[in-house]
Amino acid sequence: MSGESHETIPQLELESVIGFNGRVPTGLNVHPDGEHLVYPLGCTIIIQALRNRKQEFLHGHTNNVSYVTVSRSGQYIASGQVTFMGFKADIIIWDYSKREIHARLTLHKAKVESLAFSPNDLYLVSLGGQDDGSVVVWNVAKGEAVCGSPASAPSAGNCLTVKFSNNNDAVFITAGNSTLRVWDLDLPNRKIHPTECQTGQLKRIVTCLEVSDDDSFFFCGTSSGDILTVNLKTKLLNSCAPQKKKFSLGVTALKTLKTGDMLVGSGDGVVSLCKGTPFNAIKKVQLVGGVTSISLRGQGHQFFTGSDAAQIYRFNYTDFKEELVGTCHNEAVHDISFPFGTSELFATCSKNDIRVWHTDTCKELLRITVPNMTCHAVEFMQDGKSIISAWNDGKIRVFTPESGKLIYAINNAHSMGVTAIAATSDCKKIISGGGEGQVRVWEIGKGFQRLIEAMKEHKSSVSCIKVKRNNTECVTASSDGTCIIWDLVRFVRNHMVLSNTLFRCVCYHTEEFQIITSGSDRKIGYWEVFDGSPIRELEGSLSGSINGMDISPDGTHFVTGGDDKLVKMWGYNEGEVTHVGIGHSGSITRIKVCPNARSIISISADGAILRWKYPLLS
Length: 618
What we know:
Distance between the termini: 20 Å
Strand content: over 45%
Shape: elongated
Number of helices: 0
Helix content: under 10%
């Protein structure tokens, strides 16, 4: 069944996405209609309405998007991607009104570094990455290349950014590591002619460009934390400022305002409003994560900034106060958990933090941060009084779900990091699995945590633990190719399931007489709990391992997700795919059906959280 084409299978409806790739330079754009944000996530581009937060998705790239820009009229969006060494990286020009591909441009190798539209949407100029090193001018209407050239002199470094002048369709600027050039487009001869800008003794790495409204000057933000002002007509350096108080960790984003002031974003997360050429900050705001994009709404009475911690902020120019409008994980998401019996909230965990989200609005309600540590698994206790979590430093940490305060931590729970965790329904025991393969049972009481038993059978890391409702047995899946059903009264092995695979996930059927397993061999196995005998095997996916699996509350269906980036819904008894969800751009790491069976939530290695509508099944 999994071999059939996905066109014939009904698709799951994608309700919302939590995610934003903040590491893309100038990735966050306000569309010129003033009503939408345009930003990348993995290989998708998201168009989000500012009023009601409704999202639309542009799918077309085969790998992560590396740059996004919107034309001045708002008619076109251009996006470039990265790809593997030796392959061509596509640029896609999207028709904004139709939400479809206008042209696909293929020339650059390995990566598209930067893109810029000419002021009247006639041309698009693109810059290849360091393995490509060329600059190409494209005709937007025809979708074909006009001409190209090496972006920088052989003696200079890589070009990093490109910008068109504001009033002339034939002049653009490229800049990068010790290179700064103004180019003139000679259309009749199909050539571009560069002019080197003389900066004298100054050697700088230019990370961002901004051109003044009247095209008299352009400004270059540098990794040294100063801004070069260059005359566009004479190509001579005018000034380099500020001399004393430079912008910490480099200038990463620049925007000129109609008032002549300048908005400067820096790598330490400060957004500054600067007056005049010395670029002395008159107002400053500290954000979380380095600023990667600043985009004006309308004339600049309001503007949005994106940071590399995947946060989106809104500012009003008058009061210059930040308002957090969007957050998400900026690393791979490892696990997801719902509280017992409620679908209103869910928790996810990643590197550095655990976050609790509101299911319907996708708002972040709580963030629990443990710096420089990775959380592998998270679970709500059934009484709802605590969140238990497994960390790569070998600790089990337990937090309150309202304030996120640490209640207690079990130190040295496992020698090679805690990789899986589960709790009994009476909230008196925690079962944890470690990177070394041990399964340990902890007794939890008021003011004490005690190790009851360590069960040593697995030879490799434990990837998933599920406990039976009556707390008498549990099943653990491991990457050594075994699933073990344990007796939690006598602390011995009841049965062992063997298969030539790295098990990633295991689930009890709702009535708990069967388990289903899956892993790196792409097979879904049904097994008898009574004696561990195999019942049947399904081909779960055509490519890549299956990492996440969950059974619907009524036990009639289950969902799977994995490295093929597809969410699949299966009939449990029929063993056939009923629905497919296409939308992830990274490997799916875990998937859950919410307890009231209204939605399916899947998480992925690119930091995205996707909510799908649970289909009405006859």
